[in-house]
Amino acid sequence: MTTILPLPEGPSIFRDDEPVIQSNPLLPGAVSPRFGDRACWDFNGVLRKARNRPGAAMRVLLRGLDGEWNLLARELAMIWFNPRHPKLLERGIHLKPTPHSPLTVVGRIGHLRALAVFAAERGLPQQPAQWADQDFQDYVDHRCDSGDSLSVLGHIHVIKALHRLRGTLACGGLPRDPWPGKSPNAVAKVPVVVPLRTPVISPQTWFPLVKAAWTYIEVFAPDILRASVLWRRLRDQARPVPMEEADRLIHAWLADPASRVPLHPDGSIYWSLLGYMAGISVRRAHAFSPGNAPGRDRRAAVERLVAAGRTQFGLLNEMTIVHRPHGGTGPWHQGLTPRSLRWEAIALRDACYLFVAALSMMRDCEIREITKGSVVEHFGSPAVKSVKEKLDPDLPVKHWWITEPVAQAIDVASQLSQHEHLAFGSPRHENEGFISGHVPLRFRLHVNELRHVTGLPELPDEHVTPHMFRRTMALLTRDHPGSEIAVGMQLKHVAARALANRTTQGYMDHDPKWARHLAHAIVERRLRRLQDLFDADTRGETIGFGPGADRMREAFAAVRHQAEQLRSTGQAQRGDVRVEHDLLARTRISVRFGKLNHCTMNDDDPTGAKCIEDAVVPDGHRGPLIDRCQPSRCANSVIAPEHLPIWKAEHASLTRLRETPGIAAGRRAHLDAQLHEVDLVIRRTRP
Predict the structure, then answer these.
(1) DSSP for 150-191?
(2) Distance (Å, rounded) from C-alpha 439 to C-alpha 612?
(3) What pTM was computed for the model?
(4) Per residue in 348-402, pLDDT tens?
(5) Which of 153, 176, 152 is nearest to 163 (CA)?
(6) Hey, how many other C-beta atoms are within 10 angstroms of the C-beta on 579?
């Protein structure tokens, strides 16, 4: 073990009795660690901790750092926790006002510890101020050789902090910057905007994993929730009673025609569960002991019920029937006993978590902050409220638009959770949590172990992390019209427009794993949507409004006319709708489906496309410029019936904003212009 030599002692600008946390609100009743504490600063129960972080992330460990190294670590941590401390301002140190999180400080103190170890191993002077610039460069090179260059940035930040904060450190800090005029990224030779390193989940894993999670939520959850409620009620009602009272309760239960003897999956009688069903706590389970005559009599009476066929496996008499992988049908579980119910409840909680992570694009920490009853309506669409943590010290409550299945998953998780407030808590005890990173592996192992009974697809052995769901869904949505804006909003990356945000673009980058699948799936999906419109038009329903809709109706009429000609000549059977659908697939009908309107622009003849008027079209680009779409004025725009509620909700929202008292004239004029455009869209839908 390397011995870290102490630095020379010196006075500090901070008092030993001074509280460490002065710039963050403390939890109720909490007491902050003191600057003079030399072993550990534990912030568990002192500062708010993200639900997905372990307790170790809230502890600044100072053990192993002796003398001035220990003091230097405490001083740096004190400054990072209190960047506007009066002693810093007195010395002309003006840092950003936002305090660092304990997780960041823990990491940087670890970097300082590594620096001290490097000095001891290389025999460098005890004071970093006496090091040569090449010594620091050798340290950075050593760290690069030990890992990737991105991890070195934190070490360089710590070294530069020794120079920047030199007037506040007892050891004097560094009199010069080892890399003057260079940023940490330039020193580590890392680009300022690094490529997103989060991989996507492959299609071979994504589809069976999401399907398995949804099957648990949609098919298995009612049985699991029903069994959980029943088991909780049995435990609450059961009580230790004298043997005479136990005998009366057992005979009353046996005489009830609705009573069924619970069995283990192997067919043996589940005596302890039977005692709970009769109202007797497990401590009186020896009422069925074969070691005495009354016990043998009770066992014989129970066995007569078994012989009569009045049995059930576990807690439930009936469970949902599923199709098995190798043919046949049967219950999805061999029998929900109290023991197996525990694991199935955890699997259901994990399924809800994975499904929400996959289809909401929320971060792990934000999902873990979802509270019970947080699904609301936001601007006319279902949304979930949670806390946005990343890059936002105020932790504001934000809304994430979600689909109805995601809302159902959150509701199921809330029913399972024993936590007073959190939707994703433990299904067993209120204070128990779970490690998010373990969920994908645990769910995969559970599904694969029981798939011969549940009928679920086999989940491939692929490493999956919660953040990969967010990355994969961003990739999947990029090919929809306007997706670069929608994904930017959903990922909560604030930008003037989504295309200007480099991080959002990184999330949406193509991946070879999905390229072929997406190309085929998008074509198939568009054809199905086109077939739905064709069938609706054939039934005489309104498929849309505007010139673009008129052209679609003309194309559909031509398809129907051609199909009739084929039938009249005997080349097609009458009454077979597949004739029209086959012709539709071969007909070149240009349509791009969107959330606010559909675009029928023909790439070869873009007449009337407002988006490309007076626009600089990039070389090689074909199709519309989505960010310049003008649904109210374009001859290619189709306003479908499903779009109308959105436009009407926008009209109502703008009207309310315009009526705000004291609104500025410029703001009112801008709202008037927006209202005019919305009115033009709505007028198109009127006869």
Answers:
(1) HHHHHHHHHHHHHHHTGGG-TT---SS-SSTT--HHHHHT--
(2) 48
(3) 0.67
(4) 999 999 999 988 888 888 888 888 888 888 777 788 877 665 545 556 677 777 8
(5) 176
(6) 20
